[in-house]
Amino acid sequence: MNQRFCTMGRAPSAAIASCHKQSAEGLERTAIMLRLTLRTLRYRKGGFVATFIALFFGAAIVMACGGLMETGIRTAIPPQRLAGADAVITADRSVRMATDAEPDEDGYIEYQYSTLTEDVPLDAGVAAKAAAVPGVARVVQDIAFPVALAGTTTTGHNWASATLAGLNQAAPQPGQVVVPRSSGKQAGERVDISVRGQVAQYTVAGTSTQSVVYFADSDAQRLGRLLALGVVAQPGTDSSALAKRLADSLGTSATVLSGDDRGVAEHPEAGQQSEILITLAGVFGGFAVMVSMMVVASTFGVSLQQRKREIALLRAIGTTPGQIRRMIFTESLVIAVLATAAAWVPGSLLGGFLFERLAEYGVASPVVQFHQGWIPSIVGVGTALLAGVIAALAGARRASRTRPTEALAEAAVQRKWLTPTRMIFGIISCAGGLALGIISVTVMSGPIAASTAGPAVLCWAMAFTLFAPGATKAVMALLRVPIRAFTKVPGSLAANNTKVRAVKLASVVAPVMLASGFAFAQIYTQTTSAESAQRAYTESLRADAVLISGTGGFSPDVVDTVRSVPGITAASEWVTSAGFVESPYDSEIGDEGLTLQGITASGASLTAVPVASGSLTDLSGDTVALPVNHASAMGVTIGDKITMRFGDGQTSPVRIVALLEPNDVYDSALLPARLLAKHTSEGVASQIMVSGDTSQLAARFPTAQLADRSALTEAYADGLETQAMINYLIAGMIILYTAISVINTLVVETADRRREFGLLQLSGAHRGQVLRMMGVEGAAITLAGLILGTIVSLGTLVPFSLAALDTVVPYGPIWIYLGVSAAAALLTMAATMIPTVIALRTRPADTVSAP
Predict the structure, then answer these.
(1) Does the bond joining 584 to the residue before it have cis omega, within 30 degrees of 0?
(2) Structure confidence at residue 8 (pLDDT)
(3) Residues near 176 by beta carbon (within 8 Å), at least 6 away in sequence
(4) In whole angstroms, what is the distance from residue 756 CA to residue 496 CA?
(5) Parallel, antiparallel or unpaired: strands 568-583 and 594-599
(6) Which residues have a Cβ under 8 Å from the Cβ of 187 and sit 6 or more positions away?
């Protein structure tokens, strides 16, 4: 295209020569600009290092989040018990849910997909289909069921599946078991093993290195369900090709796993945790990208402000605006490339560190291998490059357009800051934060309102960052009077500086505002959300105590035995799971399905769920109590039937016997405990809620744990605490990143004032006065940043608190606010005073004469 443009209207040879000449001139200009850029960086080490650090940490955080996402997508789990299988077949754990979308012109209907939460049995006919696939030598059934041995919960399996683990000892006979070597049992001993609350004695036939219990095939067939098939290939068969043939043959009726994916069959919960990990990485990765752009823009802006005189002189000697832009663009590109290259390895290490912490909190499975390949690294590189380039172009735009005489005048003190672009994007950001706040108050309720909190704080942070010079002027005007009143001469100097240098001061106030605003919003959002969920959950229970099984569950007759104990007024089994409404279509149901709770009808009084109509005492057989909003969305009422799909994939028609008031925390449906328990992995209830005099229960059920009602709320609180720790961990990384920006900006800005310090000393101010002046300025910057950060956080916290707790004040101890404020003050003062002390070591005359 360029050559065609150059040759228009010219002889071919002359045109080609002209194009070659233009290309050579372009390359020469580029080389000159690169040399100028490198020389500029050499004399501006402070700005270079500050921008480098901001880009380095931003790229590392984004790469780490990318690694978490890749790990969740891969879900690589090296198989152990099924290592001898070339491919493993499991039931399809995905569930298809209808939507209200109309069929398109081809008759295609859009569906949503979710994941089943319980063990999903595999159809026995799949084994015959798999065995008929070319290349299959044999198919081994893996029958599994939960067991409790010596107080430890594990799983039982049929002995035939032990061949896949490489065990070749004598097979156990009916009534015999092979137990883990870690159990301390020896061959010939008798052991008590509980299966779904039923305790039976077995003879130990041997031990193995596996952590599971192997039963005789006939016993396993009686006690368990077929959950997987191990496929052994014929010699010389390619396992990947075999897995593809198996998948083509079985279609959507089953899932074929190969390679490291085979381990998912041994740890199905890891797949569910991986989905959470993907979502978590995506949310916080996007959050990190936005914060990175704001931090880099702020840091690069400070660097450009320090070079106003240099850019003005370049404009005065004839440098064109385009050349200025290219110089700054080249400089940002060089820094970004160096920073992202340096962040490649640390980003992977940071991702591994975050994954290990998430595994400790139970969010990620420790059996999953962490992976961070080139894709997340490239994303991190691209993000850092994009942030650097955007920040550079935005900062250079006005400098390159300014006329030389105006630029020289503005090099000393910058007064203009509000551009049309800044105003437009600032107004849009304010409107976004306001809209999200209105949605939180009017539409959201309970802890789910937290879904708008993250985007809202980003909107307000962006708005206040764009309007930082004006906001800083306003806050400093309020602080100027008390500063002069309480600090006398140093305060008067500091107050004058805050007035004259208000625009420059905004560049150091903004990072303090971002760090404190993010910290206040993230921490108090989590504490308020946890308190809202805890209150609602506690209010839904009326039990005095809870009986917790120590043998993997209670047999169905135990609840009647508990009810017959003298002093017990009510008893109810307690089962939890998740399911879906198969039909009719429920527009209220979310991607994760509907929370299901199983209770005993005779003990329904222990569940304080407001009933709109009907009665919970009718919960027996195939029945359900639905929230009113779900029933209304489906157009059903009491007496109607709906089809439920349970967590194990099984469907069953159930009759509606009651309608429940909607819950602000989560929508849940109530079912008979025995109906729901059949569709869970455990198969029975593991908790029984009781009320009345519970003093005799401990003696009657010695293998169970008796705890007060706080055991249920504490278990629920543990889940909330885990979620809180996740948010604190990843949000803490972002807050730490903004704190680094605070240090960066203040150090560079303070170090750049050496000439000013020298002039003050030459005009009569002694070293102590300069130090006190900077101390007052640092305190003013801290207060201004905290005030603006508080306003930023309140734009998120007030609407969220109204939605979650019906109060404008977020829940949480005051020491959180004081702690964050103290940390911000410590960082700000250290980043201000240390460079000041270093700068004052130079003789005043030398600093004034320095370039």
Answers:
(1) yes
(2) 41
(3) 202, 203, 204, 205, 216
(4) 13
(5) antiparallel
(6) 204, 205, 206, 207
Residue keyed to tokens 């009808």: 601
- Regions of the chain short of the pLDDT cut 50: 1-12, 15-16, 19-20, 22, 410-411
Q: Which residues pair with 231 in a beta bridge?
A: 87, 139
Residue 841 and residue 343: Cα distance in Å, rounded? 34
- Residue 223: the pLDDT is 92
The C-alpha atoms of residue 222 and residue 580 are separated, in whole angstroms, by 29
Helices within 98-238 (DSSP H only): 125-131, 217-223
How high is the pLDDT of residue 849? 56
Concatenate the DSSP letters of all residues of 89-116 into one string.
EEE--EEEEE-SPPP-TT----EEEEE-
Question: Phi and psi at residue 449, in whole multiples of 5°?
Answer: -65, -15
Q: Residue 396 burial (CB < 10 Å; 0-12/13-18/19+)?
A: buried
C-alpha to C-alpha distance for 407 and 429, rounded to whole angstroms: 30
Q: How big is the CA angle at 686 (ends 681 and 689), to the nearest 5 degrees?
A: 140
pLDDT at 658: 93
Strands 545-548 and 611-614: unpaired
Q: How far apart are CA 555 and CA 557, in angstroms?
A: 6
DSSP assigned state of 261: G
Contact between residue 449 and residue 436 where contact means Cβ atoms under 8 Å apart: no
- What per-residue confidence (pLDDT) applies to 607? 80
Nearest to 499 by CA among 519, 516, 483: 483
Beta bridge partners of 751: none
- For residue 846, the model assigns a pLDDT of 64
pLDDT at 369: 83
pTM for the full predicted model: 0.70
